[in-house]
């Protein structure tokens, strides 16, 4: 008899997580290179086994929290004018060297250290096509980056930025700090279309997040109302049975 | 509820964003001011279900993991060192650098500071000083009887003295560049000081390779673009409102839960 309540509760639990995901999207509305995330819920069907169940079985649908997937749409481009602000116009990710290994990112905010190493804001070196850190001659100031990632300074070509594609874009773990860990191998991106002096903003559509949030909120209220009316129904039933017996 | 805290970090971030933008707008007419931009990072993630886990004994791999991000944090506020517009003032002691480099000035403490603000004047002893009275480094002295001061693009200062037809060279300006300009620390009054991150100054003669040229009779205005700042301000304000809406909604959901228990 309590199953109805438990099914509703599984929905409440899932909606609560959906709310966290929406909140995180809205909080990151100004994070460069951030990709909005969405939840994927599925029904979880449990078969009732037992002698007294009619053939064909009865199924119960619990909400099961399956996955969060990333919306990979291009974010808005913002012009900054800094020579080391780079945006990827096509597909692909920058690769940076972190203490824990190579990580992927869409955020194109780079700086250079005093020795000329190009790094992100956490001082993780930006890697070239061969996976080696990119180092610019320290005295050079005119930095030009072409669409395919070739960096040129006063003293000539300084390297080519490696833009890679993961084997499966869905199988990437967000680690925070705009870093993504790719499961499986990566390959060079075909047409990265790098743009210099620009930054790719977050791709969060604030209006649709808002409507989504309202939907979650209403759904949550509806299901919780269901839970309390179910409780009342059970209470009434018990009261009536007791009355009949006495 | 996690969404409450998450939206809280979002509001904090947008507040920093608005503060950065308002400082840019406030310094719209500050000579040599370089606009700043707040830069954000997503916070850590909680894995509800790891990416790449199997969903059955036959090794079916779930297409995506379930992750919840825990909000946002400010990663950096960095300067955009684009050249500002050059404004003609026709004042013979107004200088602007076109291209890379900073004027060097000596602070009262003896430390060297760097600036793009070339609004200079003469101290009572003839030294060329900034609006705050700090002398250029290397110091340049203009004789009392000088009638006019002129500077060429390479920063050589010459004066014409009464009774002489030939201009007389009194000094040579030196400007400094840095491996990482963004590493300079702003100390206010249009001045910057070097840090570990900027590296040591590379001092050179203006108008040589890697150094900008000196323009006399011009000042460099700020590189703030009001239109961009205002649109950024509007979107920051919207984002702030949205985050507060999330807080209201989460609060509402918590209220619903509380009522459930009654």
Automatic annotation (TrEMBL), chain A:
Highest taxon above the source species: Bacteria
Any GO BP annotation: bacterial-type flagellum-dependent swarming motility
Protein location: Bacterial flagellum basal body
Flagellar basal-body/hook protein C-terminal domain: residues covered: 195-238
Domain Flagellar hook protein FlgE/F/G-like D1: 87-152
Primary location: other
Keywords noted in UniProt: Bacterial flagellum, Cell projection, Cilium, Flagellum
Keyword Isomerase part of the UniProt annotation: no
Keyword DNA damage: no
Entry GO terms, CC: bacterial-type flagellum basal body, rod
Protein family (similarity comment): Belongs to the flagella basal body rod proteins family.
Protein name: Flagellar basal-body rod protein FlgF
Source species: Neoasaia chiangmaiensis
Lineage: Bacteria, Pseudomonadati, Pseudomonadota, Alphaproteobacteria, Acetobacterales
Automatic annotation (TrEMBL), chain B:
Cellular component, GO annotation: bacterial-type flagellum basal body, distal rod
Flagellar hook protein FlgE/F/G-like D1 domain residues: 96-159
Compartments where found: Bacterial flagellum basal body
Flagellar basal body rod protein N-terminal domain: residues covered: 4-34
Main location: other
Residue ranges of domain Flagellar basal-body/hook protein C-terminal in the record: 215-260
Keyword terms, alphabetized: Bacterial flagellum, Cell projection, Cilium, Flagellum
GO BP annotation list: bacterial-type flagellum-dependent swarming motility
UniProt-listed Pfam families: Flg_bb_rod, Flg_bbr_C, LlgE_F_G_D1
PANTHER family, alphabetized: FLAGELLAR BASAL-BODY ROD PROTEIN FLGG, FLAGELLAR PROTEIN
Family per similarity comment: Belongs to the flagella basal body rod proteins family.
Subunit composition and interactions: The basal body constitutes a major portion of the flagellar organelle and consists of four rings (L,P,S, and M) mounted on a central rod. The rod consists of about 26 subunits of FlgG in the distal portion, and FlgB, FlgC and FlgF are thought to build up the proximal portion of the rod with about 6 subunits each.
Protein's name according to its UniProt entry: Flagellar basal-body rod protein FlgG
Organism, as annotated: Neoasaia chiangmaiensis
Name of the encoding gene: flgG
